[in-house]
User: Fold these one by one.
Assistant:
Number 1:
Amino acid sequence: MASIYIETFGCQMNEADSQYIADRAGAAGYSVADRAEDANVVVLNTCTVREGAERRAYGRMGHFKSLKSADPALKLVVTGCLAEQDRDRMARLAPHVDAIFGTKELMQLGDALVGWREGFAESALSEERALIMPLGGAADCVTDAFSSLRGYVTVQRGCSYYCTFCIVPHVRGRFDHRPVHEILAEVRQRVDEGAREIMLVGQTVNAYRDPAGEADFGELCKEVARIAGLERLAFISPHPKDFTKEMLRQLSEIPQLNPRVHLPMQSASDPILRRMNRKYTRAQFHDRVQWIREYFPRAAITTDVLVGFPGETDQDFQETLDYVGTGVFANAYMFIYSRRRGTPAAHWDQVDPGVVSQRFARLADVQNAVTRSYHDRAIGREVRALIQGISRKDRSKLAAKTLDNVTLIAPLPSDYDERLYAREPWLDVRIEAAHVWGCSGSIVRRAERFADGGVTLERRLINLLTA
Ligand code: SF4
């Protein structure tokens, strides 16, 4: 049987696109391989939002060159934002890549998979591939048996906000909202296929507007929540400017909504927010925090912070540090500003890299302490989480995500079987230790459905012994 291996970098938009590629591949008769060495087609779904992501993508292309040399029948495909931005350069730098598809060419990628399928039907994979040693590097995400448990549904493509540091509008274009009926149909399909959690994704997801009607993001979510069988609902990534009190009120009435709101701040300094073209002030951002507290008193608020944006002074940085130090964010994705070709900020005077590193370390110290104390509060509790699969750092452990997006790690249960745990993917984990990256503990129960009581693992083992 022909097989496909998909590596994904970057944001959930790319994960949604990878899910589409996996669907098209499945419909064309491919199975999903969890190692590139076992696949006829290798897809790299790339990101270009930071220089590091770009370097990693080219590194992975270099890595797969050895596989391609050992087996010229392998098809190496690159898609995603870097493919969109760098098409000509990529063709020059990585001539062993068979096909490059931009972010708006996923249908063509799906069609190409159908076309290649026949050629793979008869051919066996070259045995020389097994001799290739891994060269290191890893994707953010690899499509596997657990991927379909989280259904990523794109509600809008592109972004019209043009933050001065961001490459997204330049590679993905302006807002292009999908009609409500299309979104609902895709959610229904994902739920029918076994998705336990639906993640609505868009670059500024709460700016959503139904092109054929009046529905905004709050109304869309209420419609989605009415779909029979939907267990959990989440969304990423909203823009602070687009939250209204009315929208938050509507969202708070959705029982399946996960208790986590991601609110990307970037900076707490007004001059920097203005130069970033973020369209809100620190005070307006803080209003959104208060509204979220009012309507979701138990939700985790998480954020993104950018350090070293061009023109950031010590005073600007201190304002961000002070705001983060109030402990408002359960977690934060902290980044050093990365100069992106084609964006306005790339042409402005840059902050000294040594200064930026020091600021970043100070910010990380402050936020990590807050995050660690947020995780500390879970010690001793049993928490329900959706399985992610075998931990990438320790193959003897399972990884899962809680509803508030905390990573849990627990030893593999003695009855672990991939198919069984994909069928019964909700894990109740007793939290025993807290870390900055998440929590660790032991799995005490697993359940097929979020609302189920679940099966206690010890009891099951006793039943088996006494049967
Ligand atoms: S809102 Fe700003 S940071 Fe977010 S995708 Fe649009 S331009 Fe980029």
Number 2:
Amino acid sequence: MSERHPDWCYLARCTASEQSGAHRGQPAIVENVVLSLYSDAANPSVVLVEIRAGTGILAARVAYAVGRTLTALAKQANSGGAR
Ligand SMILES: [Zn+2]
């Protein structure tokens, strides 16, 4: 593998190879919801937000925390991954 990783890439979660897989940022874990930056290896300049949730039903306090984290990640993604 000779690919370059974005500055925000968390190598322990990265599956990127030349044209497949994905870069993933360090995860923010809120209860059983995992949130992180994400980009396809084939198009690493497009920074997205990945959310993985074990259930779609959240306690209100968890929903607030997920919302705040999503907002922070969205801002970071919108600036190309810069903090
Ligand atoms: Zn990577």
